[in-house]
Write a structure and sequence with these properties.
Distance between the termini: 44 Å
Number of strands: 53
Helix content: under 10%
CATH class of one domain: Alpha Beta
Number of helices: 6
Strand content: over 45%
CATH architecture of one domain: Roll
Radius of gyration: 35 Å
Largest sheet: 24 strands, antiparallel, barrel
Shape: globular
Length: 839
């Protein structure tokens, strides 16, 4: 966590900062430095307690939010409690249940359980650990023998640390209005897209929908009405390593077929795993003859290194690499000898780690758009990592009129990655039943040395293969219109073949080739599509040429097209572009300029002119603004045939929470709300924009089950507002909304010139507290109290410089807390009466 923010230097803080400079130097002094109390104006004679400052990293009693690191591995943030230890005459760390849980130690390491009510000294409860609190870094370092820590992947986060967030609601909106007008007609189109949600406890409610409307001066108004996409409740469960969904949702097409259901789904979520376990990487096994150092390389680069004891070892927490290439495992023994072996690796095959699995189980009523069909449907899928190079998968769909089962695999080999699956289906219609099969295969190989990527995909269908959606939709229509005959689809897919080749040629540019062929049962026709593209750069000028050809024998449609484009940067934020295209008997050319403006490039624009071979000309302009409360765009164009169009669009979010309503950019299913009282104007480090007038802001996206750093930049806040901290951590559950509260206080700019009845001076470093025991400020030189945290204009303050009642005094005050434009300190004289005289 970062240090609490220090505001710009002002005269009111001069002496206070000097005093803190001395205090900080004590905190980092040697183990036992002696400080002469007489140096501080006779402090020892007055009973000032300096003993705590004789210790290294001295800390005052109280509670502090801090990062915890065990054996130099971050465990997250927790509130630490320090209390005075009479034996050591210093504040020491207490073992709380929260800290004990975060340490994640073996039971044998803990001699005494942590307590919420009483202070259990951490050093006594866990005698094998060394606790070091870094006061300047707000960090607790814990060193303990590795054998006493619970074994987890290196980046494991305990489910007990996952946070459910707060109660809140949001609406993401996407609004677009478009008007087209010529000499004879005018058309208006309106679209509204909604993604909304609300969170209560651990449950998340989500809804997706849209509304479109069209109006023409010829055909009148038309609307499809409000289209509901998905509406569901969802909650995760650590025991299931997944989540439960209730309502209207779509199943996944990762294995098998995707369709709409109204029902329930239980599915695994890989994001719950440690980051090193989420994507595929092989498990490495070997034997070390002595204490050895293991180094793993890929393409010559070191990607992992660890020391292991003699005997068998297993490495199962490799991060998934974004590159292909076998892994070279080097074992360096203690005598200097080095052995090595290779492990095949490819990230192109759909593989899971050995022993890992993914599952989905869904059931309910089939749903097609807004219609819910009476047919019950069950779908189940499972993937399992069998070996380093082999993952198997299977699935099934069951419905009264439909049955399907699937089996497949993913395989990584030295000559490329293969995946294949086969689906057997049985579809029953009103007058007949069909049984069919679908075969699907993929092949991919990457030649990293040559910059070549080749992908091939093949689908093959039998004549009588039907999908669930085709079967249930036809049967549904047949029931609605009794007596009518609904024919089966005429064009039933027979085969589809796709090939793509990408070639990076370095300074010679990039080459791309793709082709696709589709055939259908019931016709001898087929459709073909080919595309070739080449791109490169000459100095600052970028260029690309593309050739496209399509041939659909079924509709007897042929099309050839050529595209040529150029782009030239005009500085860092602007560019000039030109395009030319020719399609059969049509050609067009366009010249444009676009770029961004503003200190944060929040404004963008585009201007263009175009003309085709028929002398049709058009001028167009567009512009946009990206702000912290939404994105806005507008466009306009006009041609030489008296036609014009204009459009405006906006998108953003509206979030409601306990501190009010906040506007922001579009948010994801999981996001964070920042609140800092009096913090308006402070920037948001993890998002766009700054805190609004009420001190609220939005971080639009957070990563679930991972440590997220949420921070603010106090630069734009008021000068007399201090932040206790400017960064914190959260570990959100999926779809959770988090309220991150940054504590602030206003420097009240009040100085008290204290005097004692004995004409003495209140010692330097004395602390002042209000009637509630809250810290108010320190006493500096000459008995000057810097009361920076006064919350009331009148009351009583207690000033303390020792442990005895004789080392305290009190005084009543009445001050003016109103702000002034010059932010100048206000000084008051006060007589501080010793507490013993009041008794």
């Amino acid at each position: 966590m970062k240090k609490p923010t220090t505001k710009p230097f002002t005269r009111r803080t001069l002496a206070y900062l000097l005093m803190l400079a001395f205090y900080t130097s004590w905190g980092y002094a040697a183990e036992e430095d002696e400080f002469d109390g007489a140096y501080w104006g006779g402090g020892s004679k007055l009973g000032v307690d300096f003993s705590r400052f004789n210790q290294k990293n001295a800390v005052l009693p109280g509670e502090y939010d801090a990062e915890v690191r065990v054996n130099n591995v971050s465990k997250g943030n927790v509130r630490l409690r320090f209390a005075d230890n009479d034996e050591t005459q210093r504040a020491e760390l207490c073992l709380t249940p929260a800290l004990q849980e975060m340490l994640d130690l073996e039971k044998s390491a803990i001699k005494q359980q942590g307590s919420e009510n009483n202070c259990v000294w951490a050093k006594d409860a866990i005698p094998d650990a060394v606790f070091t609190y870094q006061t300047g870094e707000f960090r607790l370092d814990v060193d303990i023998p590795q054998a006493l820590t619970v074994s987890h992947p290196r980046d494991y986060i305990s489910p007990t640390r996952w946070q459910s967030g707060t109660t809140a609601a949001f609406v993401n909106y996407d609004v677009n209005y478009y008007r087209y007008r010529n000499q004879h007609s005018m058309n208006d189109n309106f679209y509204l897209g909604i993604r909304a949600g609300a969170n209560i406890g651990s449950w998340a409610l989500r809804h997706y929908g849209s509304l479109s409307w069209n109006k023409s001066n010829r055909s009148g108004s038309y609307t499809d009405g409000y289209q509901r996409g998905e509406t569901y409740l969802q909650r995760d469960f650590a025991l299931l390593q997944g989540d439960v969904t209730l309502g209207d949702f779509y199943t996944s097409d990762e294995i098998g077929e995707s369709f709409g259901l109204r029902g329930i789904r239980v599915a695994s979520d890989d994001r719950m795993l440690a980051p090193s376990q989420r994507s595929f990487a092989p498990v490495i096994r070997g034997i070390a003859n002595t204490n050895a150092n293991i180094t793993i390389r890929q393409n010559g680069n070191i990607i992992y290194q660890i020391a292991v004891p003699a005997g068998p070892f297993i490495i199962d927490d490799l991060y998934s690499s974004g590159y292909n290439g076998d892994l070279l495992v080097e074992i360096q023994e203690s005598d200097g000898k080095v052995r090595s072996f290779s492990v095949p690796f490819s990230n192109t095959a759909p593989l899971l780690r050995v022993g890992h699995f993914r599952y989905r189980l869904s059931g309910g009523k089939y749903r097609h758009n807004d219609d819910v069909v009476e047919d019950n449907v069950m779908q189940a899928t499972l993937q399992y990592g069998l070996f380093n190079s082999l993952t198997i998968n299977g699935g099934a769909i069951a419905s009264p009129n439909y049955r399907a089962r699937l089996f497949g695999f993913g395989l990584a080999t030295p000559i490329g990655a293969f995946s294949a699956d086969s689906t057997w289906a049985k579809a029953r219609f009103p007058h007949q039943t069909f049984k069919g099969q679908r075969l699907h295969g993929n092949y991919r190989i990457d030649f990293n040395t040559f910059g070549t990527n080749i992908m091939l995909s093949v689908y093959r269908y039998s004549r009588d293969f039907y999908r669930l959606q085709d079967t249930l939709s036809i049967n549904h229509e047949a029931k609605k219109y009794t007596g009518f005959y609904f024919p089966l689809p005429y064009l039933v897919p027979k085969g589809q073949y796709q090939l793509s080749i990408n070639q990076n040629m370095g300074k010679w540019g990039d080459f791309y080739l793709s082709g696709q062929t589709s055939t259908y049962w019931g016709t001898e026709g087929e459709s073909r599509e080919y595309q070739i593209a080449y791109s490169n750069r000459y100095k600052r000028l970028g260029y690309q040429i593309s050739l496209l050809q399509t041939h659909d024998k079924i509709s007897d449609r042929r099309e050839k097209a050529v595209y040529l484009s150029f782009s030239l940067p005009l500085g860092d934020d602007h560019s000039l572009s030109s395009t030319y295209s020719r399609q059969s008997d049509y050609s067009s050319a366009q010249l444009g300029v676009n770029g961004s403006l503003g200190d944060k490039r929040q404004w963008n624009y585009g201007l263009s002119v175009s003309q085709d071979g028929n002398r049709y000309r058009q001028v167009a302009a567009n512009g946009g603004f990206q702000s912290g409360i939404g994105d806005y765009r507008a466009s306009f164009s006009q041609d030489n045939q008296h036609s014009r169009q204009m459009g405006i669009s906006a998108n953003g979010s509206i979030v409601t929470h306990q501190y009010g309503v906040t506007l922001g950019t579009r948010v994801s299913d999981g996001f964070a709300i920042i609140h800092a009282k009096e913090g308006r104007g402070a920037g948001i480090e993890s998002g766009n924009g700054s805190l609004d007038y009420f001190g609220n802001g939005i971080v639009p996206y957070v990563s679930p089950y991972s440590i997220n750093y949420i921070g603010i930049d106090p630069k734009g806040a008021q000068e007399n507002v201090d932040f206790e901290a400017t960064e914190t951590q959260i570990i959100p559950r999926a779809n959770s909304i988090h309220l991150v509260d940054f504590s602030t206080h206003k420097n009240t700019m009040i100085l008290f010139n204290l005097s004692l009845p004995s004409h003495g001076i209140v010692p330097m470093t004395a602390t002042a507290q209000d009637e509630k025991g809250q810290f108010v400020g320190y006493v500096g030189q000459g008995g000057m109290l810097f009361a920076e945290r006064l919350t009331k204009s009148e009351g009583r303050l207690n000033v303390k410089w020792g442990q005895n009642s004789a080392d305290q005094c009190e005084f009543d005050y009445r001050v003016d807390l109103s702000e002034n434009s010059k932010l100048q300190a206000k000084t008051y004289d006060a007589l501080c009466t010793p507490v013993k005289n009041r008794e």
